[in-house]
Amino acid sequence: MTKKIPLTGDQAVAYAMKQIDPDVVAAYPITPQTAIVMSFSNYVANGQVSTEIIAVESEHSAMSACVGAAAAGARTMTATSANGLALMWEIVYIAASTRLPIVMPVVNRALSGPINIHCDHSDTMGARDSGWIQIYCENAQEVYENTILAVRVAEHKKILLPVMVCQDGFITSHGVEGVEVFEDKKVKDFIGEYKPDSPLLDIDNPSTYGPLDLQDYYFEHKRQEAEAMRSALDAIPEILKEFEKQFGTKYDFIETYKLDDAEIVIVVLSSTAGTVKFVVDELRQRGIKAGLLRPRIFRPFPKEKIINALKKAKAVAILDRSDSFSAEGGPLYTEIKAALYDLDIKPIMVNYIYGLGGRDIFPADINKVFEDLQKTVAAKFTLPKVNYLGSRE
Amino acid sequence: MANIKELAKQPEGLSGGHRLCAGCGASIVVRQVLMGTKDPVVVGSATGCLEVATTIYPYTAWKIPFIHNAFENVAATISGVETAYRALKKKGKIKKDIKFVAFGGDGGTYDIGLQSLSGALERGHNFVYVCYDNGAYMNTGIQRSSATPKGASTTTTPAGEASYGKVQLRKDLTSIVAAHHIPYVAQASASHWNDLITKAEKAFKVDGPAFLNVISMCHRGWRFPQQDTIKISKLAVETGFWPLIEIENGMWKFNYKPKERKPVVEFLKPQGRFKHLFKEENRHILDEIQKDIDNNWARLEHFCEAGCKVT
Questions:
Q1: Separation in Å, CA of A34 to nearest CA in chain B
Q2: All structural domains of chain A with their residue ranges
Q3: What is the pLDDT of residues A112-130, one digit of tens each?
Q4: CATH class of the region A255-389
Q5: Which ipTM did the prediction report?
Q6: Torsion angle (degrees, nearest 10) of CA A198, A202, A207, A210
Q7: Check: CATH 3.40.50.10580 for A3-247?
Q8: Which positions in chain B touch A65 (Cβ < 8 Å)?
């Protein structure tokens, strides 16, 4: 039996963590992630979990302690945002290359400077090549379910990579929604027991973790990491199938919304997809063939699924909540554009950078993007390739 | 008190064949520290000579579990390992008693790793932290650290026409660590092996964090013949450059006092890094160094007499 309870995105993470009951959590407070650690600390204080929590003195130490705990053989979690992720940067890469299945909910927040506590994706987009799997969530329900899912993805023997479960700062993290939560036992059964292969604490079979890896082996080890990320494309669907069987929710790498016959399409991550769906519904009522594609898993990059979803469209606007100064566009745009490059007939593709530092995105903004696409399709004008949506000129 | 015949029978955690220099102090320190417990030990190491020379993939010189993470975070890393141990032991997944030790050089401890160390000490993890202090970034080529003694010529504080080497005093890390009021803090030297191993025994025994600051000779950086490692180390103690002290539950104590402290020049003279100080124009620096050592000695005597335990 599922039940529906009011939770913010942060509380949804904490609730999932309570059910996962990891062996070790090492975390440091940063807005807007704080509520995750605070809520979870209450579960610890009230004996509702058996987790040992390490209240570290920085995010650098949070990820360092996670590496130690995960290598030791413990199911390990942390959570962070923006500058916190930036501070742990060095160890984020080490966690992935050591193939430690750490799960880290990230509450997306603009990276300083200037300092700002509100949502954009500059923090996790910068970490897209760190070797972590990245899942982007639209709402608190998905945050909850993906946090549970992430444990299985990270620990899958063909994957063994850490996972970031991303949600939009304040918009999702602090907005209260009705979240359907699963029975504790069902979650426990789904995640199973963590059985690491060569844990550091197996003193009878001693392992050396983190050796010096020079010209003669480093390349192969990075290659193995890349192959693990590729094999995640095959392994994740199995886990998603099991998830559906256990909990009834059907997930895929991507979500499509009224896309089958869509001529003009917006591609966007996370909470903004909700606004786009609202606008798509309005346009559909007026007979305009608008649609949405929301990549749910960005790493591994589901290239084939994205190509298939977009190849029939006439024009596609890709919305990036982070910039890559002077590049071809934002990271989502450049990767999707590159993925479609080999098609003989491909849609017009344009990029909109939006919502930096938590700048609100309204239905009117989304409407404007669809109007731009319509005009472009009608060849009334050529859009600049990179546009700034909602910024003063 | 360690019995040398018994110690000789103890299995070694760090095997020979590692690639540290002949005459390196670090491996001697590590072996003596590991003799301080008979329980299984998990070792953490900061990036540095010890790590790069003992774990060149696909080889490892470690016969016991070993983890290296990065330069500045061995204390945080071992706190994760130790916490995982407590979590898994509580659940019955681990039965044996295991000890934890973290090794860092002075760069990884006094400088870049100080925050990580301080955090782990304050949180009270049950582990031993050993700083092998060779007074500079030796692994990257003898750059100055905050543990580099005044007057030493390093590659970033070279002695020259307008420089007598490092201007500043060494950071007093042992006192900084003592200010965390952890159960056990000590300074030791491999030349006084019985003292060092006894201190390691105490450090492994206490419930909570323990810290050993051990002088570790580097003939490449200090510029002396490699066979003189222990001799130089002994001079560091005999001159009062490296006092053998411990702070046990807040009580300061000298573990060894030379009958007569030798002048510090006897420690400085055999080392090429201080060669320039013996030129006429730098003689006053030698006087200053002697004065600094006398002052520190007097401070320690004062602490030891006072006991420094708040009752």
A1: 19
A2: 3-247, 255-389
A3: 999 999 999 999 999 999 9
A4: alpha beta
A5: 0.97
A6: 80
A7: no
A8: 76-77, 79-80, 83
